[in-house]
TrEMBL record:
Keywords: Cytoplasm, Hydrolase, RNA-binding, tRNA-binding. It comes from the Bacteria. It comes from Antarcticibacterium flavum. Belongs to the DTD family. It is found in: Cytoplasm. A Gly-cisPro motif from one monomer fits into the active site of the other monomer to allow specific chiral rejection of L-amino acids. One of its GO terms (biological process) is D-amino acid catabolic process. The gene is dtd. Homodimer. This is D-aminoacyl-tRNA deacylase.
Length: 150
């Protein structure tokens, strides 16, 4: 499981001209799921994200977590995070999970994030053409891959 995490002051996702979800202070998570991902990847990644100290404390040092600041989360599925660009100019998405695998894992990830934060998280719609808008705070952008834990 691969995630691009962006600290935001606001973010939203629009589908077919309608805002599906929006958040204020928190994080936007672009989530890529691969065939080899499991519940263990979900647990590890959710825990890592919720506890990651990327929010400023009272003296401006990134020392607070998403749960410390009672922040919100917007989670968008994005299979292109598993693009392979080794050959030619057209990316290959062979490692990205097919919908039959990816959708249940995406839904489990949403549920785990809600349980970890104790609140509802925003989301897009798996496979939809989505327009994501954000105001990156910092900017702070971090990439995490559950297969690179060491």
């Amino acid at each position: 499981m691969r995630a691009v995490i962006q600290r935001v002051t606001q973010a939203s996702v629009t589908i077919e001209g309608e805002v599906k979800s929006s958040i204020e202070t928190g994080i936007l998570i672009l989530l890529g799921i691969e065939e080899a991902d499991t519940k263990e990847d979900i647990d590890w990644l959710c825990n890592k994200i919720v506890k990651m100290r990327i929010f400023n404390d009272e003296i401006g040092v990134m020392n607070l977590s998403l749960e410390d600041v009672n922040g919100e989360a917007l989670i968008i599925s994005q299979f292109t995070l598993h693009a392979s660009t080794k050959k030619g100019n057209r990316p290959s998405y062979i490692k990205a999970a097919k919908p039959g695998v990816a959708i249940p894992l995406y839904e489990q990830f949403l549920g785990q994030m809600e349980a970890s934060l104790g609140k509802q998280v925003g989301s897009g719609i798996f496979g939809a053409d989505m327009k994501v808008s954000l105001l990156n705070d910092g900017p702070v952008t971090i990439i995490i891959d559950s297969k690179n834990r060491e």
